[in-house]
Amino acid sequence: MIKKILIGFCLFLSAVTWAQEGTSSPYSFYGIGDIKFKGTVENRSMGGVSVFNDSIHVNLQNPASFSHLKFTTFTVGANYNNVKLETESQSEKATRTTIDYLVVAMPISKKFGASLGLLPFSSVGYKIQNVNADPTQTSSRYFGEGGVNRLFGGLGYKFNDNFSIGADINYNFGNISTTAVDYIPEVQYGTRELNESRLNGVNYNFGMMYNRKVTEKLTVFGSLAYSPESNMNIDNERNITTVLVAANFNFVPQDEGITQLSTSKLKLPSKFVLGAGIGEVRKWAVGAELTMQQSSSFGNRFNDIDNVEYENSTKFSFGGYFIPKYNSFNKYLERVTYRAGFNYENTGLIINNKAINNYGITFGLGLPLGGSFSNINVGVEYGKRGTIYSGLVEENYTNIFISLSLNDRWFVKRKYE
After folding, report:
1. What average pLDDT does the segment 119-133 reach?
2. Structural contact between residues 234 and 268, judged by C-beta atoms closer than 8 angstroms
3. Per its UniProt record, what Gene3D superfamilies does this chain match (predicted)?
């Protein structure tokens, strides 16, 4: 047990001190960047479905699930992203490897469960160059980095075996930096606009889960989760200066430039998630979820971005799992959990009057470790976001995700000293 705690502590420190570049998408320029967290590996492997409660896996999308835990669980998840970026005239490839979450969750009584964790909530990361064929005309370079991290704590309460509720509080914080450089190749100097934002704020998430046996084998599942609208505080700094432009996105400032300071608030939209499913516990289950977000109230860090609008977003997820025989003693593959799913999302982002949609299909495995309740979960997602039309970018991506879930009993009163 001590070794597990030390491993978790070291990984937690490494995540706090390691600044990740978690995306390569040009769409991360807008708002607070790409929303990175889409559930644990177990849930993502089922298309994002989180309607099922579990005694050994952490479900971070609905805090009511914490009350169903039977073991203290430490889990860490990571993601490898490979994406092909295409326009009407060219294409590029990019890869990223990131830590997705670090979480400790535990039962603290027969009715209560709690969770504490850290995860990268959103990410900004892109490099774009628009070179004019005429060296006497203006060319541009754009790049950005940073994002928003989330530190959260949650509590779940189980009224009985069928019904539970929960809530968590999230502290969001981070820094985002975006740069635009305009230059004429035949002119020695160009102009740089550097925008830096420091963000922080608090939001809440509430949930409830319900399950009931309808036959000797079949159980129905239902879940609700709601996040009310909240504000993020933003301290903005904009610096405009003359630069000497070099290769590989490098530049050397030639003067102090003009700095503008401002403070503002950015709304995080409210979100409502409704889920339902059916299955045989520890054997199989299928479920679906509908996520509705009031994204039309969302905005950008700066008010002078005029090619973007927001509309309310909708996401549909469907998926499930199958375990041939969870208590098999001599056939390992029968104890493996097989997962699959798909999702479709209208992201709510409209650029150049074109809605940005996203869809993906997922597959995954839950691999038991030895004779314990610990496990390794792996999954893969194939998807597409955006379009090559209207001067936009289409992203064809593959995500490979993996998590380690270590389970043990804590707070067990000894019968003998």
Report:
1. 85
2. no
3. Outer membrane protein transport protein (OMPP1/FadL/TodX)
